[in-house]
Amino acid sequence: MKSSIDSQALSMGFALLCVVSATMDMGCSTSDSRKSAATDGDSGTKCDGSCGGSGGAIEGGYGGSGGTGGKECSPKPIPDTVPLGWEEFPVMDCKYRIYVPSSREYLPPPLVWEPCSSKTGPLAFDCRQIKMDWPSTQPQPYSLGQTQFGYVGVDGKAVLQVHKVYEQSEPELSSGVMGMVADADGPVRQAFWRDYSAKEADFASSISFWPTSVAHEKSSWFMVEYADGQTRRLVSFVGDDASLCPRIMNDKLLSESLAGIVWVGSLYYAEAAFGQGWVRKWDGTDLGVAVPDTWAYSTPQWIGRNLLFALEANPSYRVKIWTEQNGTQTLVGHSDDDSVGWANPGSDGKDLVWIQGEGRKPDDEYFPTRWIMTSKFSTDPAEIKPKRLIPWPTRSIGAQTASPAVGCGYAAFQYDIGWPSSTEMGIIVVRLSDGQSWVLVSPSLVPRDSWTYPIAITCEEVFATYSAAHMYTIRRVRLDSLGPGTPPPK
Questions:
Q1: Which of 177, 188, 286, 346 has fewest C-beta within 10 Å?
Q2: Counting Cβ atoms within 10 Å, is residue 141 exposed (0-12), middle (13-18) or buried (19+)?
């Protein structure tokens, strides 16, 4: 079994309980901007696939692992709280209402950035944060949900998947969600609105709407339905991260199958089901099991055509990789020597990083010696040439909340000293060429006011989430403003 601290790593991964397949960019049918996407006379909105729909193969090459199909929805006016020019995205038989822009002209405005706030005086580095320019009762600027994701595009710029939480106090406190994929310094690519009304009068349950992953110009989202405190149903929709109407590919009661996580890639996607991680092409071709036991492994990430992850089942820690040619194999780690462990990998396809633990005796819970390691990336284990960088301060070598962000010769790791009774936490940035490092230390832990996890790193900046009282924002810090840093030990 995984140790308690390694189970913490699942908080953004398998514990999300989402099942995702694939989609293509299918334009929403548009009529009046205040009407839903598909109508049939006076019968009301129909979840018939014109903007959303059921699973299965799609003309044009995308496929999926099923769905319940479309059903008629009772007529319902679009509330005034829905953005102008948006229409209904049929999902969950329209029991709950999700809305999307009817055309790209109605996408939300770009993200706005402002100087980072600080409770301890001026910051010593160049820092900006997302400005909360939407209604909320939360303290500025903390009004994002817990899960945010990002990647660096081929142009070297960051793309972010964000989860804005809107709140209104009248007539009673209620919240809405604006999910979007946006260039950090450019237009919004994709957006969804879950309206303030999250309950139906004739159905005593509620929903949550969350991002799942974004990478390689693909994105995935999911909705979870709750009833009587229990998870009842999951609906997932994914596709191009510029699609206004991704097709619904999974709609399942939890009694039908075990639900899991999806990781999107450019050529493949991975879907967790029945405790295993399955790899499929976007046309639905099944390529078999890549991750044999999802609960024993770190959250996988697509590195081009390759799926990178780690076995993190105490006492065994090994870095793994899946390729279509060779299936799953150990990339870093050897034999069955559990006195050494290799875990928490990350890569941008050029450089590979991981955490290596050493010197553990059979009765030890943790590795007494731990290092951040690097090598040039390869899918061939024989080509991995490990190089020590700096000591790793966290007791566990397993992934924390998120995998490290790697890019442009740098890597950024989340660290947490002393978990669960944390004494220090933050972000470590390390230069891979020489081990020079910088630490973004959280100013306080009670109330929780801290750096949480990195989501992307470019040649100029590191992007990371920052929390206060369980709400979040995204911050970006210029690498050249961090000062000389700390050299690696001799």
A1: 286
A2: buried
Task: Please tell me the predicted confidence (pLDDT) of residue 204.
Answer: 45
Long-range contacts of 94-98 (CB under 8 A, 24+ apart): 94/45, 94/47, 95/200, 95/203, 95/225, 96/194, 96/198, 96/200, 96/207, 96/223, 96/225, 97/194, 97/195, 97/197, 98/192, 98/193, 98/194, 98/209, 98/223
Cα–Cα nearest to 21, from 59, 69, 66: 66
**What pLDDT, in 10s, does the model give residues 251-275?**
766 655 555 567 899 899 888 766 7
8 Å CB contact between 223 and 209: yes
Q: Which of 16-25, 107-116, 128-137, 236-245 bottoms out in mean pLDDT, i.e. has the lowest?
A: 16-25
Q: What is the pTM of this model?
A: 0.85
Segment 75-105, tens digit of pLDDT = 678 888 999 999 988 777 777 778 999 999 9
Question: How open is the CA angle 39-45-50, to the nearest 5 degrees?
Answer: 70
Q: 206 has which bridge partners?
A: 226
> What is the length of the chain?
490
